[in-house]
Amino acid sequence: MVPIDELRSRFDLDLPAHGGNAGDVIDLLVDATDGGLMASAGGRFFGWVTGGVHPAGVAADWLVSAWDQNAALAACAPALAIVEEITGAWMLDLLRLPPESSFAFTTGCQMAHVTALAAARRHLLLSLGSDPDQHGLAACPQLQVIGSEHGHGSIDRAVRLLGIGLDNITQVPTVNGCTHLAALERELDRAGSAPKIVCLSAGDVNTGSFDDFPALIAAAHRSPNTWVHVDGAFGLWAGASSKHRHLVAGVSDADSWATDSHKMLNAPFDSGFVATRWPQAHRGAMSVEASYITFDSARDPIDWNPEWSRRARSVPVYAILATLGRSGVGDLIDRCCNFAGEIAERLAASPGIDAVTVPSFNQGLVRFQVPVGQDPDRWNDHVIDCVAADGDVFFTGTTYEGRRCMRISVCSWATTQQDVDLAVAAVRRVLAAETQAEDVAIDTNDS
Ligand SMILES: Cc1ncc(COP(=O)(O)O)c(C=O)c1O
Description:
Layout: H1 4-11, H2 22-32, E1 45-46, H3 55-67, H4 78-94, E2 102-106, H5 109-127, H6 132-135, E3 144-148, H7 153-161, E4 169-172, E5 174-175, E6 178-179, H8 181-191, E7 196-201, H9 213-222, E8 226-231, E9 256-260, E10 272-276, H10 279-286, H11 314-348, E11 353-357, E12 363-368, E13 370-371, H12 376-390, E14 394-395, E15 397-400, E16 403-409, H13 417-438, E17 442-443
Parallel strand pairs: 1-14, 3-4, 3-7, 7-8, 8-9
Antiparallel strand pairs: 2-10, 5-6, 9-10, 11-12, 12-16, 13-17, 15-16
Pyridoxal-5'-phosphate is lined by residues 49, 108-110, 152, 154, 205, 231, 233, 260, 272.
């Protein structure tokens, strides 16, 4: 990678007083980004949870740009309002969510959470006789959010954006990455009849683990005034695979679900999706009225999204779903999960590497055994950096249960068996070279 300062100097021109040639500007963008982009669309990129991009999605996304339609209203782009209607129904079907659910295509899972939690806030508070949208939260009973200790930061940000406040989140302990049932029940009892949102996880970002939906959702719904939201940024796609569907058994009993198409489905950024069991609350939380807007008889995306003008981001999703079909989407999910399992297994069987979590889906963790005298966490980060610098493959790190680990995240249609073989070989080669450079024995006390 080119250093940040050099990248800045390449772009940091004086704003031109007069226009120039667009072709020259595009050439400048191509040249100046060289060494400053990641190969995240390639098959050996296993960092964060970064989906690749399917060619059908890229082509459809170019159409979206060339058409330059405002997909807010059916009146602005009737064909694209219909594409969105159909794609939403396909998504509900594929992910095995209730077909009558409301939905929206958001920028990502972050805004899917915001949309779902805004619907939850409205639904819960209206049912208690308070209108948060009209009178503000100060005039309403305090909402509580109950989530797992490993909940994704995007839930916290949704809670902040919606004025619920981080102080009103209670974190429930987990066992093997899954929300602990008895602990959740204790928190539900403690909250009593207060309005509350329980946030569950379909695919923990570190371990890929899934909550026990039948037990947890039933417990939550036994408590009065409770809405259950599921963060399924990548894991909700288990529903599209006959091999992995058991992981999301019972998830359709929740009240809302958030996911991404730019992760497992390999849609281009930005592409999230939210669905709720409560269309009235969803629409009530998002819809707008203005005298200059013409409302048509078709579904108006503006009524379901936290945006006014918007990109027709359902079009690439439609293109990928139509290209792959049910079986193709299932194969894509299964291939990513199988490869994640294989990489984790083969690395854990290699000298100097321990398994931390074995993937049940597409995420796993390994940890490098530390040479005597080295700081364990720094050693793990050092090896991850060296693997990246080696250039064949890219992984990122995380802190799990207080220790630095290397994440294995397989999320791309482009990953092949050859990529997997190369990735395993690259990590082994780099680790061997680094361990040799240390020229010391492995500290087995760290494992
Ligand atoms: C579990 C989980 N939830 C939510 C998000 C946020 O998704 P997005 O980046 O699409 O907003 C992520 C992102 O990686 C995630 O892994």
